[in-house]
């Protein structure tokens, strides 16, 4: 049994220690907002926040995040009040198919919540780790413009 | 074609609370409690239900893969029904012949459903009006509908649709209905956001990958990278020894139709995804490779060299050769590579075969085909095959093939419980239906400093036998050229091919537009002005081709085509070009009833070519949802950057080589240039927007690169 802290709750996980966090979230905990797309940390669809950093969960063994604070897309904001990044995404109507947007939003949240005062091109170079096959980039840029 | 009244009658089951669809992503938006009141549903037609609590539900027949039918189609119903868009919930219809062709294909959704959906809304509105008239004992002529109410302006009475639903649903369906005049539209043409937006940004939206059924297990399948390989034998023991693995079975090759080819392999069935993925690595499989051909790029090239020296197998347009006497002939040879779909959500399907009843759940582009095919293969009545369409993480033509749905059902039948298949990204590429590799040979005859003859020989692997889906964008060029000859010869390859955003336009429009710019510049002409000259002065042109059905008679409205071209030139500042270090490239095309033109701007910086701006102009008739159309224009540009500047699929030893995003990178946010989008204001009937804005982007980029560097571009991606 491995204990993980996800969205401020503790979970006992019955899975081998090398299991990637993505599959534990999806199949064990029914937290299906994190998506599988490449499985090799190349697209960002599966990103979660680990102690505030956006990391691909598809290659992240659960053994490596035992002591970490994990936040998934389901854990952003509250029922009454969405996270400012989610609000910006709604304002700009960012998603098309929507499948990559969890990863996009998690990455943007990791930047936003750190208050690092990054320059625009620094923000974009971090966002470059996420792929959107539908090409929603122009609207992502607009959403980011409202945030940074 | 069923007539409108029959259509409206088909599922007229007032008060039955008939369930026509599935409600994946709107569950959250729909949880308002009506304590004390019993909610009753009234179905007015296959598209529309009203409740006594004044809620409307609209059933969307066309799969949502990011192209926006759940927004646009719902808007069309709301417009005629006179109900606020925010008041409706949207459900995905399950597969049914009631809707006719439900497929998300050919950018035809709006074209296909515009009228039926307006009539669906208008019919219900008339019935609600009549119900109010009966209650008030007045004639319905003096009543008006607005915001979900029937109003009697004279007496200032009003009744909500909810209050009238029961009464209205008992009335006969009117023989004919009047539709609103486009100038009275108050919803169509306004910017509306997706009903799934909130679920998408909170992780609640349900895609195929996320769907589940009681008792389901997860399946991962090992197949050979080459399609013709067969399983000779396999040892399941080591995989079965992994806790959580319940079965290992062989999947046999099965190809009822080309678009549903189940490839041979060995499937691991396990309690969760990771166990299946882990265990499959332990399978020991011996493959029969006797039928494998070790195809590679060199073999394709040799095939091309041979074919181009022979006359085309099919002739699509033929001039009178005796008249062709040119001053000189320019020859162009292009190779446009295979492309994969790389949908963000890899293929997967949830299927259950139990007691001669099938349930199939997942993202797809063709619900009817899945239902029909499975009913035929397993000899089950259609109603025993329930196909639920979830949101899809992209489609781009890949999900027009239904191999992965059939595969899941075959496995479920064999193991006796519901299964969810999951394909890895690499498998998704290996088992793709690629856009075909194509070769093009042009011989352009020049006389009096203009194009006098145009010979274009196209070679691709055809989707269905001969030239049918392979020549659009080339054989139907509407140019004012005296002698046009178009030929087609099939390429032979074992690589599996299919439809990819805009199908043959994706390669033909590229080569055609690249030839025009190169020839124009070679003749010392301005490519934009020369293009206009090629488009002549006629208002429209009809091109006859020896192809069946609508493909045999192609209408091009030249006014509209010239208009988008001129607009793109004007917006991009074509006439004010002066930079030594920058250049513009222009291209245009028509795709069915839509027209698009693009101008790309590139600059030279530190000895590297950079794409800095794209101007995009689209005329797709009356626009239903400008936000949706813009999204398609943006997506087209993003797609175009990927295939023009970043990636392709190559074949070695019969195997696709670029399988994941490490070797096959696609457009990322930093690759996106500045965009300038313009949608033509039009009252023509709405036409497609998903594919039409794509084909002219790659040649606009290539033409800009050529203009800047003077390097001829003969294949993609361009190395810049
Ligand atoms: S699925 Fe993890 S980065 Fe692509
Ligand atoms: S919205 Fe479809 S992949 Fe990004």
TrEMBL record, chain A:
Entries under InterPro entries matching the protein: 2Fe-2S-bd, 2Fe-2S-bd_dom_sf, 2Fe-2S_ferredoxin-like_sf, 2Fe-2S_ferredoxin-type, 2Fe2S_fd_BS, Beta-grasp_dom_sf, Diverse_Oxidoreductases
Gene3D superfamilies linked: 3.10.20.30, [2Fe-2S]-binding domain
Keywords: 2Fe-2S, Iron, Iron-sulfur, Metal-binding, Oxidoreductase
Iron found in the keyword field: yes
Record bears the keyword GTP-binding: no
Domain 2Fe-2S ferredoxin-type: residue ranges: 1-76
Molecular functions per Gene Ontology: 2 iron, 2 sulfur cluster binding; metal ion binding; oxidoreductase activity
A Pfam family the protein falls into: Fer2
PANTHER family to which the protein is assigned, alphabetical: BLR6218 PROTEIN, OXIDOREDUCTASE WITH IRON-SULFUR SUBUNIT
Protein's recorded name: (2Fe-2S)-binding protein
From TrEMBL, chain B:
Gene3D superfamilies reported in the protein's UniProt record: Aldehyde oxidase/xanthine dehydrogenase, a/b hammerhead, Aldehyde oxidase/xanthine dehydrogenase, molybdopterin binding domain
Highest taxon, organism lineage: Bacteria
Pfam families in UniProt: MoCoBD_1 (PF02738), MoCoBD_2 (PF20256)
GO MF annotation list: oxidoreductase activity
Domain Aldehyde oxidase/xanthine dehydrogenase a/b hammerhead: 202-291
SUPFAM superfamilies linked to this entry: Molybdenum cofactor-binding domain
Classification via PANTHER family: ALDEHYDE DEHYDROGENASE
The protein's name: Xanthine dehydrogenase family protein molybdopterin-binding subunit
Originating species: Flagellimonas hymeniacidonis
Highest classification ranks of the organism: Bacteria, Pseudomonadati, Bacteroidota, Flavobacteriia, Flavobacteriales
């Amino acid at each position: 049994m491995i204990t993980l802290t996800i969205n401020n709750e503790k979970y006992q996980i019955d899975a081998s220690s090398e299991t990637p966090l993505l599959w534990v979230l999806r199949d064990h905990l029914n937290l299906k907002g994190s998506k599988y797309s490449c499985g090799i940390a190349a697209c960002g669809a599966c990103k979660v926040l680990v102690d505030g950093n956006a990391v691909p969960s598809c290659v992240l063994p659960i053994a490596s995040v035992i002591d970490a604070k994990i936040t998934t897309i389901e854990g952003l904001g509250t029922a009454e009040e969405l996270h400012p990044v989610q609000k910006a995404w709604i304002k700009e109507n960012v998603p098309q198919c929507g499948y990559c947007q969890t990863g996009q939003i998690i990455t943007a949240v990791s930047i936003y919540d750190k208050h690092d005062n990054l320059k625009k091109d620094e923000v974009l170079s971090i966002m470059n780790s996420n792929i959107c096959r539908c090409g929603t980039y122009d609207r992502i840029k607009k959403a980011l413009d409202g945030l940074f | 074609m069923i007539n409108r009244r029959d259509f409206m009658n088909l599922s007229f089951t007032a008060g039955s609370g008939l369930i026509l669809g599935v409600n994946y992503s709107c569950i959250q938006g729909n949880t308002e409690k009506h304590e004390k009141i019993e909610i009753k549903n009234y179905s007015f037609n296959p598209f529309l239900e009203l409740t006594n609590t004044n809620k409307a539900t609209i059933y969307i027949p066309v799969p949502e893969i990011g192209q926006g039918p759940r927004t646009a189609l719902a808007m069309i119903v709301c417009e005629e029904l006179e109900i606020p868009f925010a008041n409706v919930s949207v459900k995905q219809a399950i597969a049914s012949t009631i809707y006719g062709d439900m497929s998300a294909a050919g950018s035809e959704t709006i074209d296909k459903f515009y009228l039926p959906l307006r009539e669906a809304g208008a019919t219900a509105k008339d019935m609600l009006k009549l119900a109010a008239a009966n209650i008030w004992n007045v004639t319905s002529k003096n009543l008006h509908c607005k915001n979900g109410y029937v109003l009697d302006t004279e007496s200032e009475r009003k009744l909500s649709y909810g209050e009238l639903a029961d009464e209205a649903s008992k009335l006969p369906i009117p023989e004919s209905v009047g539709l609103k005049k486009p100038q009275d539209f108050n919803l169509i043409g306004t910017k509306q956001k997706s009903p799934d937006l909130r679920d998408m940004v909170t992780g609640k939206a349900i895609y195929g990958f996320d769907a589940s059924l009681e008792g389901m297990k997860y399946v991962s399948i090992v197949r050979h990278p080459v399609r013709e390989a067969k399983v000779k034998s396999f040892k399941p023991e080591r995989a079965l020894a992994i806790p959580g693995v319940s079965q290992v079975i062989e999947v046999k090759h099965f190809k009822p139709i080309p678009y549903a080819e189940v490839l041979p392999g060995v499937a691991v069935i396990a309690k969760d995804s990771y166990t299946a993925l882990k265990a499959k690595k332990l399978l020991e499989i011996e493959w029969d490779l006797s039928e494998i051909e070790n195809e590679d790029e060199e073999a394709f090239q040799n095939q091309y060299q041979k074919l181009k020296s022979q006359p085309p197998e099919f002739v699509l347009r033929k001039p009178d050769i005796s008249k062709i006497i040119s001053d000189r002939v320019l020859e162009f040879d292009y190779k446009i590579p295979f492309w994969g779909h790389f949908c963000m959500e890899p293929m997967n399907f949830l299927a259950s075969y139990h007691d001669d009843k099938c349930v199939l759940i997942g993202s797809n582009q063709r619900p009817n085909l899945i239902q029909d095919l499975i009913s035929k293969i397993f000899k089950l009545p259609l109603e025993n095959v329930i196909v639920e369409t979830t949101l899809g993480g992209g489609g781009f033509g890949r999900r027009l093939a239904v191999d992965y749905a059939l595969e899941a059902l075959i496995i479920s039948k064999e193991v006796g419980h519901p299964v969810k298949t999951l394909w890895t990204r690499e498998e998704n590429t290996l088992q793709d239906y690629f856009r075909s590799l194509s070769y093009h040979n042009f011989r352009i005859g020049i006389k009096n400093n203009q194009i006098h003859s145009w010979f274009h020989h196209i070679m691709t692997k055809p989707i269905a036998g001969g030239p049918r889906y392979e020549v659009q964008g080339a054989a139907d060029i509407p140019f004012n050229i005296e002698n046009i000859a178009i030929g087609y010869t099939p390429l032979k390859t074992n690589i599996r091919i299919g439809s990819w955003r805009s199908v043959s336009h994706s390669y033909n429009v590229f080569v055609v537009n690249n030839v025009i710019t190169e020839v124009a510049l070679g003749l010392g002409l301005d490519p934009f002005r020369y293009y206009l000259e090629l488009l002549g002065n006629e208002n429209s042109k009809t091109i006859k081709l020896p192809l069946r059905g609508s493909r045999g008679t192609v209408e091009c409205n030249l006014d509209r085509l010239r208009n988008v071209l001129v607009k793109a030139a004007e917006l991009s500042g074509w006439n004010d070009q002066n930079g030594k270090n920058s250049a513009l490239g222009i291209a245009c095309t028509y795709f069915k009833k839509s027209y698009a033109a693009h101008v790309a701007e590139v600059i030279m910086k530190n000895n590297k070519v950079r794409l800095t701006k794209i101007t995009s102009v689209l005329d797709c008739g009356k626009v239903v949802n400008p936000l949706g159309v813009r999204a398609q224009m943006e997506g087209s540009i993003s797609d175009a950057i990927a295939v023009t500047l970043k990636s392709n699929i190559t074949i070695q030893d019969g195997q696709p080589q670029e399988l994941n995003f490490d070797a096959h990178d696609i457009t990322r946010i930093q690759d996106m240039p500045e965009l300038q989008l313009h949608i033509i204001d039009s009252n023509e009937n709405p036409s497609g927007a998903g594919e039409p804005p794509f084909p002219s982007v790659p040649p606009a980029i290539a033409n800009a690169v050529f203009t800047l560097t003077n390097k001829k571009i003969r294949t993609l991606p361009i190395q810049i």
